[in-house]
Amino acid sequence: MKSNAPIRKLPANTLGKDYVVGDLHGCYDLLERLLNEVGFDKTRDRLFAVGDLIDRGPNSLRCLQLLAEPWFYAVRGNHELMMLDFFSSYLTSGKLDPFEGIKDNGFLEYGGDWVSEYFDSDRNCMTQEFNCGLILALQMPLLWIVGENGNRFHVIHAELVRPDYKTADHAVWLNSDIDQWLDQQFIPPEIENRLYWGRTLMLSQLASQEFARTQPGLSLTFCGHTYAAKPRQVLSHLCLDTGAFVSWWPYAYGEEGDSSSLTLFDVQESRWVSASYKWDDVLWGEILGV
Ligand SMILES: [Mn+2]
After folding, report:
1. pLDDT (tens digit, 9 = 90+) per residue, 254-288?
2. How far is the CA of 127 from the centre of ligand 1 (A)?
3. Of 21, 42, 70, 87, which has the fewest Cβ atoms less than 10 A away?
C-alpha cells in the first residue's frame, strides 16, 4: 500500500476521525497519553504526523516504528532527512565504520546521537531493529493531501512559502500548485528545501504578525518544525509544534521548559490537546476560525 511517491493523496475518513500530531522527537509516551485521552480507535481513526519523529527525545526508534502501522501517516521532516543522508552510503553498502570515524553532516550533533546505541560493532552495521526503522523512513512522503474541497487538508513539515514571496501575489503555494506537483510527482528542489527547513511564516508571526491567518486558495495545512508555547495559524498553515522534546529535558526550566508539550489536533472538532513530561494533566484548547 505504501509507495515511494513524494506527494500522496487520501480520501476523507468517513469511518472515524483524523488527528494530526506535532513534532514527536522521540516522545512516544506523550503520544500514547494523548491517544488514550481522545480515545483513539486504531480500527477507524487515522493519525497524521508533521515529521521529525526522531532525535532529541527519549524514544526515537519507537516513534519511527509507528510508520509500520496502517493508521499512521507521516511526512518526512528535516531530522529524518539528515538521518537518511547520514546513512546514505550504508543504505547501499550495508557496512558502517565505527561512529567516531564517520564524517558527520550535523545529524549526530543535532540530536541523532541516539543511533549509536544500535551500532553492532562486531559486524560493522546497524541492528536489524534499527534497519527496519531506517527503511520505513525512506518511504516517507513530503506532503499528504487528505479529503476534497471544503474538507481538504494538507500535512507538511515546515512551510509552503514561495521563494519569491516578497514580490509574488501570494506568499505561499496554493492547492492548484500542489495538484500540479501531485500530477507530475515532482516537487522542485527549492520548494522541497522550504518544506523541510522554512521558518519564514512562523518566525514572522512570532515577531510581527505581518501575515493573515488564512490564504484563499490554500486548504488548511498542518505543519511543525518551529516551536512555540501554543499551536498557531499563519496563511492557512497551522503549526502544531509545541516543543515536546524540551519538556523532556531535565534542565529546561523556566517559561519555555514549563509550557513545552506535545500537541494532538482533532481535525473534525478543530481543537487540540497537549501533554508534557513536566505536568501530569493534559491541556485542551481551541483554534478559532480554522
Ligand atoms: Mn524540524
Report:
1. 655 578 999 999 999 999 999 999 888 999 998 76
2. 26
3. 70
